[in-house]
Amino acid sequence: MLRNALGKACRFLGYTVQYGCIAHCAFEYLGGIVVCSGPSMEPTIQNSDVVFSENLSRHFFCIRKGDIVIVKSPNDPKSNICKRVIGLEGDKVCTSNPSDFLKSHSYVPKGHVWLEGDNLRNSTDSRCYGPVPYGLIRGRICLKIWPLNDFGFLRASPNGHRFLDD
């Protein structure tokens, strides 16, 4: 009887470890559901919106300008932030705030991206902490799940004029 109970316990533990590994790989490499908080991505993503983040793009270096990404915060590695990619390595970006009279520009260094929130007046982003290493990108948001009346693919940036092509 003890042998039977021990066998069941070991099988249960084995299945738990297997399914835990499968779940970890799915969330790490495929994607997951994220609840966004804060005003920096308004009006595209509101506080408490639920989105789906896919992680394959970062592994295959398929992140493009205009994508909204989940990134490890450069200021606090324990938290994630949600921002839009404004510039990739080698791109010229506007580094000043919208209210600044004189505009300043810079180039994104190799292996980095330039991130900004859609709500430029209420966003802590690359204008504050500079270019972000590509390795901090956790995933790309591709779908808004909640609220249901806003279900679907995300809309284009309201700040498209900040994307420079020269």
From TrEMBL:
Question: Where do transmembrane segments lie in this chain?
Answer: none
Q: Which EC number(s) does UniProt give?
A: 3.4.21.-
The family database entries (InterPro entries) matched by this protein are listed as: LexA/Signal_pep-like_sf, Mito_IMP1_subunit, Pept_S26A_signal_pept_1, Peptidase_S26
List the GO biological process terms. protein processing involved in protein targeting to mitochondrion; signal peptide processing
The active site lies at: 40, 83
Question: Does the keyword ATP-binding feature in the UniProt annotation?
Answer: no
Record's keyword annotation contains Mitochondrion: yes
Cellular localisation: Mitochondrion inner membrane
Can you give the residue ranges of the Peptidase S26 domain?
Answer: 17-97, 104-146
Mention one GO molecular function. serine-type endopeptidase activity
One GO CC term, this protein: mitochondrial inner membrane peptidase complex
Q: What is its main location?
A: mitochondrion
Keyword list (alphabetical) reads: Hydrolase, Membrane, Mitochondrion, Mitochondrion inner membrane, Protease
The family classification in the record reads: Belongs to the peptidase S26 family. IMP1 subfamily.
Assembly state and interactors? Heterodimer of 2 subunits, IMMPL1 and IMMPL2.
Q: What is this protein called?
A: Mitochondrial inner membrane protease subunit
